[in-house]
Structure formats: structure tokens, C-alpha cells
Amino acid sequence: MASFNDFREHIRFSLDKAAEMIRIYKSRSTNPEYFPRSVNDFHILCEEYLEHKIVLKRPKGRKGGTVLAAFLSYPTEDRIGLVSEDDYNFCRDRFIRCKELFHAITNLSQYRNMDIFKHVQNMVVPTPGRPGTLPPLSSISEQMAEIAAGEFLFPYTERLKHGSSIKTLDEYKAIAEKYKAPRVYVEMFLSSEWMLYISTYQ
Question: What's the alpha-carbon Rg for the chain, to the nearest Å?
Fold first, then answer.
């Protein structure tokens, strides 16, 4: 089992896994530099990598935007359930599916919290702690999966091409459309603070 002593080690682990999966994805692609990347192909790749069938389930009647937007279940030893809302727009759905697939890829027991209420509470209301202490590992795992999904759909190397000159909403919309990623995440990933932070891992 992996053991990490600080927050950066967890993020490094997720970025390394993202880089590994991207290398495999590109090695199998007929056009490895093409965007948007296929989440359906990535789904199949994750099944092969994990040697598990990953079954996508979309319960009817649950609306996007609820607290439990998506989650994984493990009904059998060789089967993973990916449960997601059924009314997300295309780009949002791609990001959430990718995020949950990376949860499966980085699935270590230390990141699990079977108490769903407590997990959501920790995400909405951060657990107080002493300076220098880690938040709950299940909360860290959410950030890890989000960062890894961002690297797959709209990687740092691609973000560098756009620089810091983007100012208008239409420019952000155009980039989001190119990579088929939610605009809110495109704006976050291109922010100067985020670019500086991710650059420290390059």
C-alpha cells in the first residue's frame, strides 16, 4: 500500500497515474495528438488496465447538481459500478465520468470513506485541523481525481499553448468547445494560480 506524508505526495501520485494512462491511451490511438480525447475509449482502457468490467449506470429521476453527482460501487470482485446522473450536458458528463474512472485507477483503501454523509460533510465543511495536518484522505482523493481528469481532457501542455492572454467569456467557451470540457473547469485550469501550482509538478 502506498504511504504518503504530505498533500503534494498524493497529488504527485494522481498526476503520475494520469500520465501513465495518457501514455497508454496515446500508444493505442491512430491520432494521439487529437482533441477532444475519447472518454468512451478511456473507459475501455480503464477496464483493461484494472481487469474489471466497469458498468455505467444512470438512475432515472435523479437530477444533475445533487450532492451525490457520481460514485463508484464494487458489487463483485471483478466488477465496478459507475453511477452517474442522467441529465448532465455533454461536457460535464465527460468530465464526471473521467473523474470517476480516475477514482477507480487510484483506488487505494486509504482513500475510501464508506460513510457517505461524513464524506460529503468533509467536502462541504472542511474538517478543522492543526496547521500542517492533512484533510481526510477521502477528501484529498476527490481533488486527486479532479486534477487527473483535467490532465486527461485538457492537459497542462495544452494549457501552455493558450498562455495568459485569454480575457473574454467567448474565448473560454471556444477552448471548452475544442476540448469538450466544462467551461468552469477550463477557466479554473487556465487561472494564473492554477497554472503556477501545476507547474511545480512538471
Answer: 17
Which has more pLDDT, 106 or 39? 39
Could you tell me if 71 and 56 are in contact, meaning their C-beta atoms sit under 8 angstroms apart? Answer: no
User: Amino acid identity, residue 190?
Assistant: L
Q: What is the CATH number of the domain that holds 73?
A: 1.10.10.2910
What separation in angstroms does the CA of 125 have from each of 47, 130, 135?
34, 16, 11
pLDDT of residue 182 exceeding 90, the answer is yes
Half-sphere CA count of 94, side-chain side, radius 13 A: 22
Angle at 144 between CA 65 and CA 10, to 5 degrees: 155
What domain count does the chain have?
A: 1
Mean pLDDT on 173-196 = 94
Give the domain extent around 38: 7-126+135-153
